[in-house]
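Notebook entry, structure prediction.
Reason for the run: the old model in the group folder had no record of what sequence produced it. Starting over properly, with the input documented here first.
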Amino acid sequence: MNPEAIPFKSAMTNSAILHTASHERTNVLLKTAVAEVLSQSHSSSANILLDEGAQRSFITEDLARVLHLPVTGHDTISLASFGGMSQGVRSIPTSEIYLKSETRDLIKLEVLVVPTIAVPLQNIPTEIRHLDYLRGLKLAHPLTEHNNDLFEISLLVGADYYWDIVEDRVIRGNGPTAVKSKIGYLLSGPLPVSGHRTTDLHMLNVISAPPSTFEMEKFWQLESMGISSEESTDGTSGNLQEYMCNSISFEDGRYVAKLPWRDYHPTLPTNYDICKRRTEATIRRLSQEPEVLKTYGEIIADQLKGGVIEKVDQQEDEHTVHYIPHHGVKKDSVTTPIRIVYDCSCRQSRDQPSLNDCLMSAPPELNDLTGILLRFRMHKYAVATDIEKAFLQIGLHESDRDVTRFLWLSDPSDPCSPLTTYRFRTILFGATCSPFILGATIRKNLELNSSEWHVVIRRGSIHFQGFRDHADDVKKSRRTVEKVNHTEIGVNGGSDRCPSVPTYHTTDRTLRCVLVV
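New structure, fully documented this time:
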């Protein structure tokens, strides 16, 4: 805190604000340029950054749309960010453009198309024109009256084409260095220090009198800026909307979903060796209790019969292949004494990722739980229901099934029989993204089957994989149940009577007698 700082009195909020100033900063220029780029049919001006630190050249999707660039292929590359210890693998579309030089020659560039390249840079200040050693040079980045605006990068030229553009002549002086290129002189380096001081400003609000409620709300909103999450107006995040549109489809009477992969996830290993070792260990452990081994095998057989899993005949596939180990967890249940758990967090080694490491771990889009609980307490009767085997009702897209492979006995009655490869045809319980996929599928189903009743459900009654409602009399609650039974709130596409919502719970004994479906 600066002891010489002068308090500033605010008449509106009656608060004291203390100002402090810090050290001087010097701006540094990077090699930027503005030049014309062309495709086979269109041309446009591009804001260019030339960077030897990048191995490849990139173009933004916005500029690619302006140029009507066709996709010429896809490159799978490893991207590493500054300060990062790992690399992410991503498949990126490629295209070709032409950069027009000062002599109107065209320089061909193969570029990768990405949504954005970098945050905007500070433009070159117009004071540069007063430096004597730069006078008479044609700069690749022209100085205009708009140079106080930020410089949005639309094309990055990396080391693959850098020396096809940059030439040998270098001019030095009391300021940034000028390097000759085929599109003009490029400036880079620190700007000369001027009398103007760039300072950091630190503020401390000391409330000396009780402000109004509005002012207090505004104060805490400002205090939480950048900390609290912004709520979308429709209660749905942009990631969820994009996933619902592009990754969930309705095929053959059921919803089919793709796994939400991370954009820069590392290469997923097969995990075959560790999966085989752990499966064999599970079989040896289960063999000590033959009845439990038999039940374990029956569960897998039932999943195969019900279309939850399928056998894999071929051992290689064009898609990424990954094996998941599994083990049994005992339950205090007479009908199902053991439950199979699939370990999607299994790593082949400490330095290699698991399946969950490569998937988005976004939480499910939930209605406000506080609102659900409060509405539950406002009426005399409450009704709740669950969706039966919700995850297993959603099909897994063909392109993602091979990352859910697992091994099991070809003959469950013989612990020494060879292992057979299976894979999931549905969303499996154990993947970090499964709750998110379920919530997105339910929400999409409600939006596609629009009705007054669906609007009521979307406004606040759905929570994860269940439905809750409340009423003040038995008849109204019974009507609610009848509407739910004839409403497609399930994820299996629905029918006249939705078979995915079989279990009801209620707070009233009389009402419980009529909730028999």
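Summary: The chain has two domains: 28-190, 272-514.
The old model has been moved to the deprecated folder.
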